[in-house]
C-alpha cells in the first residue's frame, strides 16, 4: 500500500496499527505478547509509528528533487528534542488508535510513552529552539536538514545529595533508539592537524595527521499530519580502523583499542555548559567534526544534480545556530578553493551567499574565542584561510592607511573571535528578539554593524504549539478546539478569537477548570515521583531554566524568604497561598550556580518545616528538570517567573510556553518579555525592575549593592539570616561567598531590583485574590500568542533570511 494511504488508513482505523505493532513485536523485537516488557511494547509501537512516516518522507524527498527546491541546512551543536513517540503520534493524528491498540494488548499507553528516555542532546534554550524549528520547518513545508552530533551521552542527570547537585552520566543510547536509520553510505573522513602543502600546480592541499569518520544517522521529522517530513541527520564519530593489529598481536589489547576510543570520544558527550563555553580542544574538534561532515554532505548533494558550484547559494541556505559551527566559513572556502579550484575571492562570495548566523547571547564571557596556536595545531589550513578572510575584510572596508578598530578584527589578542568570524562570513545575522537585536547593533556588533548596516535582522524566537500546547495540555487544547475549531495547531493566530470570551463567565470557568486539571496532574506527579505533597489549590509559581546568576533564581529565593519573614511577623497579612517551584541544572563547573541550588534547598527545608506558614508557602525543587518534566510543569503554572537582569536574556522561550498555557508572567523588560507585554497588555502581566538602559547606566555610575541593601530592611534581614547561618546551622559559613558577592559586587543587580520585585509579588497576591479577574487575564495571555508560534518564526527566516519556499 502507498505510504500516504497507509497513513490515511491508520488515522481512520486502529486495526492496521494493531497488526503492525504485533508484527514488530514478533519480528523486529523478537518477543511474544506474553513475554513483552514495557520497553518492548514501546519499541514495537515506535517502529509501527515510524513505518507510517517513511513513505511520506520519501514523498517529500521526491518533491524536493522534482521542484529542485532550495534547502535549508540547520547546523546546531544541540537538538534538545526530548521524547519522540508521543510527539509523532500527535503530529500524525493517530493518538486514539494508538491508545486503543495498546489497550487491546492490555498495555497502558501512557506508561509506554512515559518509558521513553528523553533525547537530551542540548543544554537549554538554544537546543530546544533548534528542536522547535525542526517541527515548524516540517509543518510549514521548508525543505530542510537538521545537522548535529549524535552524542552517546546527552546532558547529565541531576540528583540532589543533601541539597547539593550531583551529576550522573546520561545514557539514552544504551537502549536501541527506535527512530533512527543508520546510513552506512554516508560516511566522511574528517581530518585534524597535520600540514598544509603547496603543490607545483599552485594548488594547496591539507594533509591531516589524524582522521576520524563521521557516520550519518537519520531521524525523520514529521510535520503536522505527516504532510511533510524532513530529516535530522546526526553524526557519530568512528575510528578509521577498529583495531590496531600490531599491538593486538603482541597481546596489548588496551593499546590496540586506543585509536578507536580516541576517535569515538568526539561524539561521546555533550558539553554541559550553557551560554559559557569552555575552550577545550575536544570541543573545537566536535565543532569542526560535525560542521565539516555536514558541508561535505550538502556539497555532495548539490553537485550530484548541478554542474556549477558557484550556483550553490541558489540552492543552499546554511543556518549557523550560534558560533559553534562558525568554522563553516573557512571550511566552505577551503572546499571551494582546494577541491573545486575557485579563486579565494569568488569562493568567499559563494560561501557567504550560503551562510547565515544566529546570535543567542551578548554576554562577553559567552562569545567563543579560540587561541590562535590551538587553531594552527588542530586546523592549520583553516587558520590560513581565517587570516585571509580577516585581511580581505579589512581591505574591503578600510582604506590602507585607515586604522581598523579591534572590534572588527577576527583575530585579536592571540584569539580567533568566532562571533566576528561568523558575522563576516554570513549574508544575514539575526538576533532572537527585538530587544536583543537592537542591543546587538548597539553593543557587541556595533562597529561591524556600522560597516554592514543591512546584515543584522531580527527573528524573534517561537515555540511549537504542537508539543507545547496541543501535546502537553490536552485539557486546554480541547477547550480551544471547541471554541475556535481545529486549525489553530498550525495557525496559532486563530486563538485571537477567544479574547472576547475572557469576559464570558462560562468560558472563564472552563478555562480555569482546564488549569485545575493540570495542577491536579502535577500534584499527582510530584507525589508519585518524588513523594512531595503540595496543595493543588495554591498558586503554582514556577521558575524553570538553567541555573545562572543572570537568570536570578537567587532573587526569587531571597524574595520567598522575605515573604516568609513577613508572614511570621504579620500572620494576618494577605499572602496568597503559593507553591514556589524551581527546576533546572547548573553547569558542573559553575560553583556559584551550584551554591544557589543548595541555598534554594536549604531555605526550602527551613520554610517547609514551619507549621506556622505551611498553609501559605511551600518551596519545591524537583531534581533533573528536562523536557518531559517541562511538559508537566508548564500547563500547571499560574505564575511564570521571567526575572533576568534586563539586557541579559536574549529572548527566552519558556516565557512563551507559559503564557501560551495561560500562566501570567512576572518579569523584567528583557528578551521576548517585552514582546509578550506588547501583546497581552500591561494589565495582564507583572513587569518590574530596571530596564536594560537603566542597568547599563547604574553600572556606569558605580552601582553599590550595599547601599541597596541598606535601603531595604527586608532584603537586609534575609541577607543577614543567610550570613548568620539560619538556613545552614550545620555550616553557618556555607554562604560566605554568595553573601560577599551580594554585598560587594552583585553584577546582576539582585539587590537593585529586589524591592521592586517584592512589590510586584504583592501585586500578584492581590490579583490572585480575585479569581475571576485572574482567569480573565489568563485567557488574555493565551489568546494573543500567535506571534510566538515557531511557525511564524520559520516563515520569517524563510522570507527574510533563507529566501526559500515555505509550502507543503
Ligand atoms: C538564550 O540565553 C534564548 C535561547 C534561544 C539562549 C535564551 O535567551 O531564548 O538562546 N542562548 O535563542 C544560549 O544558549 C549559547 O547561548
Q: What tags apply to this protein structure?
A:
808 residues, alpha/beta, nine-stranded mixed sheet, six-stranded parallel sheet, binds N-(methoxycarbonyl)-beta-D-glucopyranosylamine
Summarize the entry for a quick read.
With 808 residues, the chain is an alpha/beta fold. 48% of the residues lie in helices and 15% in strands.
Major beta-sheet overview: 9 strands, mixed
Stretches where pLDDT is under 50 for at least 5 consecutive residues are none
Globally, the shape reads globular
Helical segment count? 33
Strand order of the largest sheet: 7-10-11-4-1-12-13-17-18
In total, the number of strands is 24
Q: Work out the strand percent.
A: 15-25%
Residue share in helices?
40-55%
Structural class: alpha/beta
N-to-C span: 22 Å
Name the average pLDDT.
96
Determine Rg (CA atoms, Å): 27 Å
Q: Which distinct ligands sit in these coordinates?
A: N-(methoxycarbonyl)-beta-D-glucopyranosylamine
Modified residues (N6-(pyridoxal phosphate)lysine): 657
Main location: cytoplasm
Catalytic activity: [(1->4)-alpha-D-glucosyl](n) + phosphate = [(1->4)-alpha-D-glucosyl](n-1) + alpha-D-glucose 1-phosphate
Protein name: Alpha-1,4 glucan phosphorylase
Report what the structure shows.
This protein is of the alpha/beta class and 808 residues long. 48% of the residues lie in helices and 15% in strands. A nine-stranded mixed β-sheet has the order 7-10-11-4-1-12-13-17-18, with helices on both faces. A hairpin with a 2-residue loop joins strand 15 and strand 16. Helix 22 crosses helix 31. The longest helix has 29 residues, at 38-66. The radius of gyration is 27 Å and the shape is globular. The two termini are 22 Å apart. The model has no long low-confidence stretch (mean pLDDT 96). Residues 124-126, 129, 274-275, 322, 360-361, 366, 432, 461, 649-653, 671 line the site of N-(methoxycarbonyl)-beta-D-glucopyranosylamine. The site of N-(methoxycarbonyl)-beta-D-glucopyranosylamine has 18 residues, from helix 7.
Amino acid at each position: 500500500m502507498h505510504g500516504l494511504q497507509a497513513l490515511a488508513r491508520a488515522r481512520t482505523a486502529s486495526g492496521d496499527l494493531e497488526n503492525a505493532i504485533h508484527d514488530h513485536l514478533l519480528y523486529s523485537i523478537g518477543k511474544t505478547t506474553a513475554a513483552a516488557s514495557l520497553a518492548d511494547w514501546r519499541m514495537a509501537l515506535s517502529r509501527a509509528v515510524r513505518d507510517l512516516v517513511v513513505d511520506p518522507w520519501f514523498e517529500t524527498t521526491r518533491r524536493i528533487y522534482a521542484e529542485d527546491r532550495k534547502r535549508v541546512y540547520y547546523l546546531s551543536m544541540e537538538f534538545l528534542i526530548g521524547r519522540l513517540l508521543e510527539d509523532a503520534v500527535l503530529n500524525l493524528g493517530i493518538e486514539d488508535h494508538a491508545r486503543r491498540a495498546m489497550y487491546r494488548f492490555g498495555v497502558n499507553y501512557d506508561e509506554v510513552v512515559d518509558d521513553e528516555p528523553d533525547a537530551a542532546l542540548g543544554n537549554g534554550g538554544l537546543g530546544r529552539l533548534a528542536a522547535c524549528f525542526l517541527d515548524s520547518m516540517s509543518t510549514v513545508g521548508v525543505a530542510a536538514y537538521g545537522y548535529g552530533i549524535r552524542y552517546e551521552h546527552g546532558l547529565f542527570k541531576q540528583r540532589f545529595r543533601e541539597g547539593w547537585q550531583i551529576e550522573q552520566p546520561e545514557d539514552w543510547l544504551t537502549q536501541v533508539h527506535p527512530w533512527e536509520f543508520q546510513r552506512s553510505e554516508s560516511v566522511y573522513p574528517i581530518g585534524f592537524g597535520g600540514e598544509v602543502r603547496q603543490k607545483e600546480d599552485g594548488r594547496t592541499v591539507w594533509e591531516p595527521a589524524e582522521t576520524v569518520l563521521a557516520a550519518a544517522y537519520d531521524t525523520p521529522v514529521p510535520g503536522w499530519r505527516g504532510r511533510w517530513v524532513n530529516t535530522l541527520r546526526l553524526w557519530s564519530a568512528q575510528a578509521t580502523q577498529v583495531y590496531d593489529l600490531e599491538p593486538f598481536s603482541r597481546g596489548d589489547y588496551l593499546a590496540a583499542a586506543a585509536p578507536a576510543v580516541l576517535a569515538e570520544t568526539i561524539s561521546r558527550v555533550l558539553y554541559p555548559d550553557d551560554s559559557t563555553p569552555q575552550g577545550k580542544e575536544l570541543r573545537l574538534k566536535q565543532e569542526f567534526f560535525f560542521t565539516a561532515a555536514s558541508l561535505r554532505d550538502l556539497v555532495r548533494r548539490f553537485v550530484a544534480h548541478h554542474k556549477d558550484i558557484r550556483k550553490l547559494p541558489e540552492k543552499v541556505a546554511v543556518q549557523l545556530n550560534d558560533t559553534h559551527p562558525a568554522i563553516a566559513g573557512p571550511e566552505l572556502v577551503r572546499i571551494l578553493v582546494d577541491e573545486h579550484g575557485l579563486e579565494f575571492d569568488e569562493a568567499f562570495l559563494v560561501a557567504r551567499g550560503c551562510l547565515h548566523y544566529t546570535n543567542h547571547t551578548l554576554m562577553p564571557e559567552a562569545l567563543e574565542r579560540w587561541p590562535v596556536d590551538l587553531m594552527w595545531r588542530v586546523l592549520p589550513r583553516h587558520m590560513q584561510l581565517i587570516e585571509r578572510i580577516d585581511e580581505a575584510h579589512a581591505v574591503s572596508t578600510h582604506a590602507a592607511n585607515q586604522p581598523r578598530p579591534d572590534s572588527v578584527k577576527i583575530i585579536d589578542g592571540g584569539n580567533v573571535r568566532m562571533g566576528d568570524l561568523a558575522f563576516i562570513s554570513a549574508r544575514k545575522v539575526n538576533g532572537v528578539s527585538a530587544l536583543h537585536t537592537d542591543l546587538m547593533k548597539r553593543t557587541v556588533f556595533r562597529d561591524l554593524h556600522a560597516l554592514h548596516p543591512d546584515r543584522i535582522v531580527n527573528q524573534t524566537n517561537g515555540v511549537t504549539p504542537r508539543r507545547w500546547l496541543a501535546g502537553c495540555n490536552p485539557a486546554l487544547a480541547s477547550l480551544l478546539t471547541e471554541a475556535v475549531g481545529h486549525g489553530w495547531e498550525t495557525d496559532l493566530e486563530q486563538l485571537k478569537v477567544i479574547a472576547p470570551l475572557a469576559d464570558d463567565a462560562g468560558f472563564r470557568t472552563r478555562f480555569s477548570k482546564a488549569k485545575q486539571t493540570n495542577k491536579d496532574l502535577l500534584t499527582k506527579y510530584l507525589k508519585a515521583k518524588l513523594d512531595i505533597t503540595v496543595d493543588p489549590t495554591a498558586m503554582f509559581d514556577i521558575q524553570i531554566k538553567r541555573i545562572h546568576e543572570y537568570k536570578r533564581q537567587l532573587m526569587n529565593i531571597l524574595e520567598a524568604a522575605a515573604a516568609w519573614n513577613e508572614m511570621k511577623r504579620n500572620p494576618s497579612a494577605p499572602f496568597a497561598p503559593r507553591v514556589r517551584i524551581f527546576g533546572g541544572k547548573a553547569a558542573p563547573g559553575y560553583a556559584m550556580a551550584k551554591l544557589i541550588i543548595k541555598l534554594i534547598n536549604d531555605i526550602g527545608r527551613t520554610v517547609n518545616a514551619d507549621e506556622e506558614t505551611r498553609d501559605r508557602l511551600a518551596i519545591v525543587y524537583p531534581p533533573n528538570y528536562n523536557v518531559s518534566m517541562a511538559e508537566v510543569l508548564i500547563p500547571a503554572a499560574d505564575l511564570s517567573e521571567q526575572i533576568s537582569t534586563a539586557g541579559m536574556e536574549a529572548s527566552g522561550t519558556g516565557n512563551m510556553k507559559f503564557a501560551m498555557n495561560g500562566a501570567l508572567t512576572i518579569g523584567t523588560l528583557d528578551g521576548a518579555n517585552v514582546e509578550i507585554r506588547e501583546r497581552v497588555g500591561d494589565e495582564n502581566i507583572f513587569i518590574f525592575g530596571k530596564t536594560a538602559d537603566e542597568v547599563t547606566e547604574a553600572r556606569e555610575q558605580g552601582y553599590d549593592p550595599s547601599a541597596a541593601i541598606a535601603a531595604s530592611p527586608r532584603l537586609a534581614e534575609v541577607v543577614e539570616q543567610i550570613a548568620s547561618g539560619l538556613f545552614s546551622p550545620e555550616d553557618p559559613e556555607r554562604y560566605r561567598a554568595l553573601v560577599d558577592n551580594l554585598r560587594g559586587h552583585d553584577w546582576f543587580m539582585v539587590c537593585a531590583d529586589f524591592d521592586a520585585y517584592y512589590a510586584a509579588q504583592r501585586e500578584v497576591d492581590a490579583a490572585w485574590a480575585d479569581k475571576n479577574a485572574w482567569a480573565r487575564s489568563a485567557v488574555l495571555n493565551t489568546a494573543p500568542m500567535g506571534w510566538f508560534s515557531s511557525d511564524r518564526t520559520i516563515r520569517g527566516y524563510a522570507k527574510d533570511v533563507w529566501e526559500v519556499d515555505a509550502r507543503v
